[in-house]
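ok posting inputs for the WT7 job
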Amino acid sequence: MKMLAPLAGKHNVTDFEALCKSFEWSHMEREFSWFTTGKVNAAYEAVDRHAENPAKSDQLALIYQDGDTEEKWTFAQLKNRSNQAANMLKSLGVTKGDRVFLFMPRCPDFYASFFGILKNGAVAGPLFEAFMEQAVEDRLKDSGAKVLITTAELLPRVKRENLPDLKEIIVLDCEPADDLHDYEKLMNAASTAFEPVWLDKEDGMLLHYTSGSTGKPKGVYHAHRAMIQHYATGKWVLDLQESDVYWCTADPGWVTGTSYGIFGPWLNGATNVIAGGRFTPEAWYKMIEKHKVTVWYTAPTALRKLAAAGDEVAHSFDLSSLRHVLSVGEPLNPEIIYWAEEVYGKRIHDTWWMTETGAMLIVNHPTLPIKPGAMGKPIPGVEAAIIDDAGNVLPPHQSGNLAVKAGWPSMMKTIWGNQEKFDSYFINGWYVSGDSAKMDEDGYFWFEGRLDDVINTSGKLVGPFEVESKLIEHPAVTEAAVIGKPDEERGEIIKAFITLDKGHLDSIELREEIRLFIKKGLSAHAAPREIEIVSSIPKTRSGKIMRRLLRAKELGLPLGDTSTLEE
Ligand code: WT7
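and the output
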């Protein structure tokens, strides 16, 4: 097995194995104010604490770049602006525990609003800006969102008539109609002074919706205590120093964009680069060159696109500021690690975790040798294992369920409104991830695949049920089944099998129309790239779609057990 040497230079943690042996999470609590006061607010720890420190208040907290638009905020400015947002929300009646959603593109005011929500003790629900009507409605409805902050452009996707709990909508970038609120106006009228609502570390902070193999997306509910692990992994794994210029490429509509686009960097007092606009290799490299990014957290799909753009593009930018590069979300191909080593002179450090786990659990720590293709080892304070379906721990080199011993700080509180679903994640005190993996003799974990039907396309999880439900709303579609199909660049693409209603004939135009129907109804990343018309959908006798069978057929694999197949 080829091993790559650890990252050169000095790190926050020099002896990872020793830390793993001695570490307890309670040690880390001492670093926060609640150790003495008993009360917490993650917004205070991430922003106000630095703003109140004369040595840090004028340091840049945020550098925002979208095309030629550039904005820079110090920690003091971020504190003031988020206090204004907190006062704005308070004036509209937001109180502890209310769900306040953010549906807007990445911009500095997203972050001000986000912290404004937390400062009121309310729960933030960030929505990915590419979500369309149905996706937006499902999330706002399930969470019982009371207030929404959005933009004039995205507002038409919010069907207010279906959302009785939604009391107030605040709109950026325009003078809205009478029953809506003008963001700028409210913000300008709001004071820059606000005393955060002091909370218990178990109090709710964040709702992120994620896809499962059955049902609509589920609301993964996180508590303020998660910040201990955001801070710890920011320090140990991202290796952040206060002088770092850090860039996480994920949108805050996804968990990576909050845990590591907000908390990891700011709890550690680093300068956080925020990129608006669309991905192009040139724009991304320019971001690193211009702002002298030192630590970069990105995803395999993006790295594969950058590799496909060619070495010359990379070489035409000065990327010498980079000292540490990390990846998350999908299997990181060894070829990409070798490519990055050659072209960037940097090795990519893979990390594994999930929306539900709230923060990194298995990582390539900077001081550990990298085994290309492995996700790394558990962080200090975390025990991971491969277990069988009965909850027994399996020996090294055997495939099974990747599981983590319950009890790490950033573990979700529950699934919103569905405690039963939450409970179903556990067996014998182990959290069962839904991934299959192996562990080797050195304790490194190797990802094998997902054990459910959830599709991972370009690092975004898509639940087949959600796409199937939308497909059958199209007048031409009677039944639908959706699978993931391996793809070089995107990891997987979505393929839909549909049966047509009488009176509709297969045509390229019809398939394109159906694809656009999903794109407009759910989101671009959920739209099937391939649609095949079939005469029937394989189902079990109890009526469950047998996606496994369709997938095996599509990939030319053995069909496996078909005893439950309906006649
Ligand atoms: C699923 C979780 C939390 C980060 C963003 C994704 C897959 C995640 C890796 C990795 C192979 C990975 C797993 C996991 N995944 N990281 N390093 N190697 N697969 O969060 O949307 O909740 O997805 O992403 O299948 O279960 P998510």
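notes: Residues 75-91 form the longest helix (17 residues). The domain at 454-555 is CATH 3.30.300.30 (GMP Synthetase; Chain A, domain 3).
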